[in-house]
TrEMBL record:
All residue ranges annotated as the YrdC-like domain in the record: 14-201
A GO molecular-function descriptor: double-stranded RNA binding
Any Pfam family matching the protein: Sua5_yciO_yrdC
NCBIfam families reported in the protein's UniProt record: L-threonylcarbamoyladenylate synthase (TIGR00057)
Protein name: tRNA threonylcarbamoyl adenosine modification protein (Sua5/YciO/YrdC/YwlC family)
Species: Epilithonimonas xixisoli
Cleavable signal peptide: none
């Protein structure tokens, strides 16, 4: 059964953040809030956890398009090819925010990203995932929670999410109701921003 931790953005308790980080360090899969929708994620460097995540999504590990969640732009050089100063300024102007930016990947990506030529980078404007990444010391990954409900594209109620994923994940972080609009996906691989999916973020 998944454990539920109530961590609210107004006053996130460090001991609860530490508990979430410990789950990740032990190879766990967690559901956590962001500035858009609730997402499922794990430690980017734990291949077994990444395989579990792919299994939950019903895809093969080599077919995944999981975004990388950072707490700032300092991790960019670890995963992406060098970017132009103008592109960096563009990113800095829009992050943290409700965007997923597609950039060219370098060869230092973790094993689970083998063969990926591009990678999606997220810096959510939400204190909980920011604190988790900071405490963990490196990024986590993100993939959206889809709802079977035809009206809402994504699940917003953390209690219903916990009920649905109870036997699939190790931890659900309840930060209150989430949004039902996903991030805006912007391709920056050509140097000029191209919107691939319009979501919550407005350029």
């Amino acid at each position: 059964m998944a454990k539920i931790l109530k961590i609210y953005p107004q006053n996130p308790q460090e001991n609860l953040i530490d508990e979430a980080v410990k789950v990740l360090q032990n190879g766990g899969v967690i559901i956590y809030p962001s500035d858009t929708i609730y997402t499922i994620g794990c430690d980017i460097y734990n291949h077994k956890a990444m395989e579990r995540l792919a299994q939950i999504k019903g895809i093969k590990i080599d077919k995944h398009k999981f975004s990388i969640i950072c707490n700032d732009l300092s991790h960019l050089s670890e995963f992406t090819k060098p970017i132009e100063t103008s592109t960096f300024r563009f990113l800095k102007n829009h992050l943290p925010g409700a965007f997923t930016f597609i950039l060219e990947a370098n060869r230092n990506l973790p094993t689970s990203y083998k063969g990926h030529k591009t990678v999606g980078i997220r810096v959510p404007d939400h204190i909980v995932p920011q604190m988790i990444v900071e405490k963990l010391g490196h990024p986590i990954v993100s993939t959206s929670i889809h709802s079977d409900d035809e009206i809402l594209e994504y699940s917003t109620d953390p209690e219903l999410i916990a009920e649905k994923y109870d036997k699939l994940v190790d931890l659900v972080i309840d930060s209150g109701y989430g949004d039902n609009t996903a991030s805006t996906i912007v391709d920056l691989t050509s140097g000029e921003p191209e919107i691939l999916r319009q979501g919550k973020g407005i350029l």
